[in-house]
Every structure is written in structure tokens, then in C-alpha cells.
């Protein structure tokens, strides 16, 4: 799969993993293994962790912790397309001068927040024990100067193409706008809300707790390409 026009991302299945290629990335951008490790480590939660045997090899494009201006190529043994997106997202975030943060809204119908943390933990434990999974939702706020029309197209294409659990994506006020009149309509925020169905195959128990970093990556990749 290939997406992006200014900085192009290509993901390919290979034996025992994926190959990630990034074209058009600028040179002399500082990047370390720790930068990648921070985001990859966020995939872990109670009831789920990535394959402990996964291994990432940098084939080209990064030398002495800086990009060279050549095509960046990773071979990701035991990796998946979504984990490959995280690697691309780390590089994309390096080119943005503002943070992108995805926050869970609810997990299994339970509102995400400190006061419900114990309820969510019990729900996740139950799902992990029974080899079941939970649906969830998350949201992101975008910079005020983002062209939301351009953002919608690429963000939706990547999300729906690579993550089958995505059920709906709402931008701005979403369906809440239908309940308001023009006289009391607030300014429409640059906001994205993603709804995720339960994961039926690999039984990830609470998608928003694992996929928040993946959607941050998709948002960052989208922003550097619009």
C-alpha cells in the first residue's frame, strides 16, 4: 500500500513481517532508536502485548542518528502494518512543530477517566480471561490552521484501509451539529473522533488503549502530506 504525495509511505508484506519505505524525507533530521521505542512501547496494556520476537532493521536513510536524504527503508520482522505506521508516524512527528495527542473517550461503553479506571480495568481483565475483546472510541484535536477538508480525505483513506476495526470517523462536531440551530452553533473545532469495533481475530481487549498511538501516527502522516 502506498499513500502520501509530499512524503510518500509504502508498506509491503514480506516473509515474517513488513517492509516500510519512506520517500522524500528531508536530510539531517535527528532520529534515535529511543524515539521509535517510546511510541512502540505504548502498544502494551493489560491483556495484550506485541510479539516479543519482533526486530527492526534500518536498511537505508538513517546513519549516525540522522536522516541522510536517501529513501528510508525498514525491515520489520514479526511486525504488522499498524506497527509499521508507528515507525512512519515517529518520523512524521519530527517534522511538525506541534504535538498530536489521541485520547480514549470510552472503552466497552465505560467513559474513560480517572474515576472509572477501576471499572475499565475489571472489564479488560474479564475480556482477557474470556479471550474476548472490547470496542472503544478516541479523539484528537488538530491545529486550528489545518485544512480539514484535505485532512479528512487522506486520514480516512489510511484508517479505513489499514484498520478493519474502524467503524466511523467524525470530524468537527460530528452528529452533534444536527442537534443545534445556526444561532447557537459554536465554532466548529478541528477535532477527530474515531469509533472502533471489537477486534474479532487477535482479541485485543481494548482498542483505544493500543490504537491511540497508531491514530496519532496516521494524523501526523496526514498533516505532513496536505
Task: Write structural notes for this entry.
With about 230 residues, the chain is an alpha+beta fold. The chain contains 5 helices and 12 strands. The chain has helices at about 35-40, 80-95, 115-130, 150-160, 205-225, and strands at about 1-5, 10-15, 15-25, 55-60, 60-65, 65, 70-75, 100-105, 110, 135-140, 165-170, 190-195. The protein has a 5-stranded antiparallel beta sheet, with helices on one face. A 5-stranded antiparallel beta sheet has the order 9-8-10-12-11. A two-stranded antiparallel sheet has the order 5-6. The protein is globular and about 50 Å long. The mean pLDDT is about 90.
Gist of the model:
With 226 residues, the chain is an alpha+beta fold. The protein contains 5 helices and 12 strands.
Give keywords.
five-stranded antiparallel beta sheet, 226 residues, 12 strands, alpha+beta, 30% helix
Amino acid at each position: 500500500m502506498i499513500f502520501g504525495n509530499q512524503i510518500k509511505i509504502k508498506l509491503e508484506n514480506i516473509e515474517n513481517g513488513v517492509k516500510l519505505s519512506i520517500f522524500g524525507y528531508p536530510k539531517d533530521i535527528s532520529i534515535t532508536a529511543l524515539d521509535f521505542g517510546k511510541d512502540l512501547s505504548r502498544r502494551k496494556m493489560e491483556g495484550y502485548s506485541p510479539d516479543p520476537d519482533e526486530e527492526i532493521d534500518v536498511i537505508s536513510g538513517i546513519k549516525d542518528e540522522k536522516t541522510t536524504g536517501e529513501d528510508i527503508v525498514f525491515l520489520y520482522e514479526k511486525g504488522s502494518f499498524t506497527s509499521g505506521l508507528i515507525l512512519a508516524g515517529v518520523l512524521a512527528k519530527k517534522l511538525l512543530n506541534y504535538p498530536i495527542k489521541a485520547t480514549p473517550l470510552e472503552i466497552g461503553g465505560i467513559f474513560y477517566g480517572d474515576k472509572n479506571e477501576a471499572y475499565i480495568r475489571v472489564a479488560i481483565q474479564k475480556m482477557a480471561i474470556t479471550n474476548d475483546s472490547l470496542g472503544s472510541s478516541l479523539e484528537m484535536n488538530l491545529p486550528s490552521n489545518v485544512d480539514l477538508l484535505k485532512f479528512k480525505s487522506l486520514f480516512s483513506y489510511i484508517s479505513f484501509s489499514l484498520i478493519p476495526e474502524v467503524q466511523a470517523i467524525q470530524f468537527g462536531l460530528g452528529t452533534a451539529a444536527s442537534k443545534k440551530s445556526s444561532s447557537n452553533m459554536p465554532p466548529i473545532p478541528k477535532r477527530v473522533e474515531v469509533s472502533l469495533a471489537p477486534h474479532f481475530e487477535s482479541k485485543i481487549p481494548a482498542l483505544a488503549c493500543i490504537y491511540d498511538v497508531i491514530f496519532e501516527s496516521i494524523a501526523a502522516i496526514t498533516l505532513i502530506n496536505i
